[in-house]
Design a protein that fits this description.
498 residues; alpha+beta; Phosphorylase Kinase, domain 1; 3 domains; four-stranded mixed sheet; 55% helix; globular
Length: 498
């Protein structure tokens, strides 16, 4: 059985909203293209499992089991699991990929653990793994030292058997898959997207999934960033780490989406998540800020004592001060209804020529949406960046793509914890707090320096206030243009009828 035939026989129509049905052939064909190019052994295991599921197995479960066989698809599934545009049944099924019951036997990973522990005394390893993720399995352990009677609870994060080879095989298919996506998209009359470039950027990041030594460095930096916040806990690295095993503090808790409690408690938790994972690094005055790029619910725990545990720092996005300043300028420009300022900020953030006015039309449409009542927050921002990327006239760096990926996951998790504008409200509140805290320093600084957590110079603040004073005029001129445009359109329709 060819796996492309298996995919073709799956009716995915009910799993996505009607407005995205035009993309279903692209999704189905590209998934089949990818699976048909896996090794015969992996294809045989997928077919064997699909046949074992039985004919009456729900489509969403069948699709989720298929994705779990491929590290790259597993990761994409985790991202999609919190995308509220998908059908609820599919989202619930994909959420199983966030932290699944282990299928790897302890005996399969014990040799790697043994290499890490060596002859270290006082280590007691659990009888079975605790959980399984896209590339690793989690094994609990306790340790005691001769000098201390205290028991330390930890976990080993160990690479799954053959996962490096499977990831490498997945990623060798991606360049050809990118070309296939571009060609098939053109055949279907869909918007042109540089799929090859996007997949190449994401592939470079997914390699870090199996580079546990890099995650260990990220953990160290994340622990330092949050160590002064008693509400947030990042696992502390323990000895016995290797490139294929990470030993770290064990954090007990439940997925943040599974907590029980009042609506107020859930809103408080949602605000804490947004503050810790977005606001804290975004308003950091450091030259480079580190963002968790994989904040699905399986990596975010609510502890019994009310803290937020943040796990799995293998995927991160690094945004420098200039990139964060450009994002701020985009939002300030939107508040002032100034499409020119938004475009200048985007050009400092991306590469491309704008497509002879195509990008300007997209930007003006986004600013017009603000005039009509859309909040110029992160949902507005990501929608604009997505439209610009889809137009093919601007390209964004891989760190910004990873930042965008993290925002999608984070927004989905927050919506499941406590629906509401948590990201924008938290970011705005913390941004104002940051601005107030730096007022005294601003009086002693030059007009052009941006070395503030808000990433805005004194001169840019003055420009903002001046531009804001012109916003009412832009608002009314835009409304007049809408009315005139509607009148002209109505007259044209009347003329056609006559």
């Amino acid at each position: 059985m060819r796996l492309s035939s298996l995919i073709a026989n799956m009716n995915l129509t009910g799993l996505v909203p009607a407005r995205y049905h035009a993309y279903l052939p692209l999704v189905s064909d590209s998934l089949g293209y990818f699976l048909d190019r896996l090794s015969p052994a992996r294809q045989a295991r997928i077919v064997e499992q699909q046949l074992a599921l039985g004919a009456d197995t729900a489509l969403d479960l069948r699709l989720t089991c298929l994705l779990a066989h491929c590290p790259t698809l597993h990761k994409l599934g985790q991202v999609a699991a919190r995308d509220r545009r998908l059908a609820p049944a599919l989202r619930r099924s994909l959420q199983r990929l966030e932290s699944s019951q282990p299928t790897v036997l302890l005996s399969e990973v014990l040799p790697l653990i043994g290499e890490a522990t060596g002859d270290t005394p006082g280590i007691s390893i659990a009888r079975r793994p605790l959980a399984e993720a896209s590339v690793a399995v989690i094994v609990p352990f306790t340790s005691r030292t001769a000098t201390s009677p205290l028991r330390v609870e930890g976990v080993f994060k160990v690479l799954k058997p053959n996962v490096v080879e499977h990831l490498e095989e997945d990623l060798t298919i991606w360049p050809a898959l990118g070309e296939f996506l571009e060609e098939r998209s053109a055949q279907l009359g869909l918007p042109s997207v540089a799929f090859g470039e996007v997949l190449s950027n994401v592939a470079a990041r997914l390699v870090n999934e199996v580079r546990l030594d890099r995650e260990q460095d990220h953990l160290t930096r994340a622990h330092a960033m949050h160590e002064d916040d008693s509400r947030v806990v990042v696992p502390r690295l323990l000895p016995m780490c290797t490139p294929r095993v990470t030993a770290m503090q064990r954090i007990h808790g439940v997925k943040v989406t599974d907590i029980m409690g009042t609506a107020a408690r859930r809103r408080a938790l949602a605000s804490l998540i947004a503050e810790a994972l977005l606001a804290r690094p975004f308003w950091d005055p450091a030259d480079v800020a580190v963002f968790h790029a994989d904040p699905h619910a399986g990596n975010l725990l609510a502890t019994a004592d009310g803290r937020l545990g943040v796990l799995d720092w293998s995927l991160v996005a690094h945004l420098d001060g200039a990139q964060r300043a450009a994002i701020v300028q985009m939002m300030l420009g939107a508040v002032c209804l100034d499409a020119g300022q938004v475009e200048r900020a985007i050009r400092s953030l991306a590469a491309g020529d704008g497509g002879n006015g195509v990008a300007r039309d997209i930007i003006e449409d986004a600013v017009d949406s603000v005039r009509r009542g859309v909040l110029p927050g992160f949902d507005w921002l990501t929608t604009l960046l997505d439209r610009l990327a889809a137009s093919g006239n601007f390209t964004f760096g891989d760190d910004l793509l990873m930042f965008r990926k993290g925002l999608v996951s984070l927004a989905g998790v927050l919506a499941d914890v406590a629906p509401g504008p948590t990201i924008d409200r938290t970011l705005a509140t913390s941004g104002v707090t940051q601005w107030l805290a730096e007022l005294s320093r601003r009086t002693l600084s030059t007009d052009v320096t941006r070395r503030f957590g808000t990433h805005v110079s004194n001169a840019e603040l003055m420009e903002f206030w001046a531009s804001l004073s012109a916003a009412p005029a832009r608002f009314w001129l835009g409304n007049v243009a809408d009315v005139l445009g509607s009148s002209a359109s109505g007259a044209s329709r009347s003329s056609s009828v006559e």
